[in-house]
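Entry 14. Ran structure prediction on the chain below.
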Amino acid sequence: MDIAIIGLGKMGANMARRLVKGGHRVVAFNKSPETTRNLAAETGLVATTSLKEVVAALSAPRTVWVMVPSGAATEAVIGELASLLTSGDTIIDGGNTFYKDDIRRAATLQEKGIQYVDVGTSGGVWGLTEGYSLMIGGETEAISRLNPIFETLAPAADQGWGRVGPVGAGHFVKMVHNGIEYGLMQAYAEGFEIMHAKKDFNLDLHQIAELWRVGSVVRSWLLDLTADALKSDQELSEIAGYVADSGEGRWTVFEAIDLDVPAPVITLSLQQRFISRQKESYAAKLLAAMRNQFGGHAIKKAE
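Output, structure tokens:
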């Protein structure tokens, strides 16, 4: 089956590799032509230097999978594709898009007869070998035509992927998925920090992570990755304690507020990421000043 991949970052490139290996004809375009050429030399995919070339290289009905950063970049690519594609073609957005943007885009593209499918994609750098979890939103008819692609990218033809609802539902479910991920990661991080602080037991954190991986109720893929991270350096001496966020945790919290759904764990895990980025906390300074004012408690002077 013909498919184009737009955007050859780590995930986009690995998806292209998996599709080529699965027997699909892949047409690729990336902002950097060198990246496209190198991947073409490695895999045999069709390299192009413009979106116009991409569309010309595909057979109708065309399918274009967009894997570029969410926001302005995705908006620009889909806008240009809308002017090049024709009725019956399909655009798939597999990036980290806000689900309300999917709904708006789909309505605009529908006027031109172009189908739109949003795919929440999870799997990261391991997707190439393990397959991707695909949460798909869109019309049933459009998705059915694309089943061979999803079956190739997923962990198995009948596992790890599926239509979860209409347009927007795929990225909505992926948004909540990432919010849950925040909470799980924070719980592991706090638990291991408590054990790390218990110096008199001299705990081997890598050993404990490996022990928990088998039989324990807290076993998970995240724990597997934690064990790998602790294997060579339990002090994590070369890693700064700065944690970024892709935005989906924020969207999950906003949605919880809009729906009047309590989500304290996800909300606090997001706040912890913000705390990790502060070199110095003004709020903590003010707390120390208040304690000194009302109780005469000692203040530690800034260095």
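Residues 47 and 294 are 69 Å apart (CA to CA). Will compare against last week's run tomorrow.
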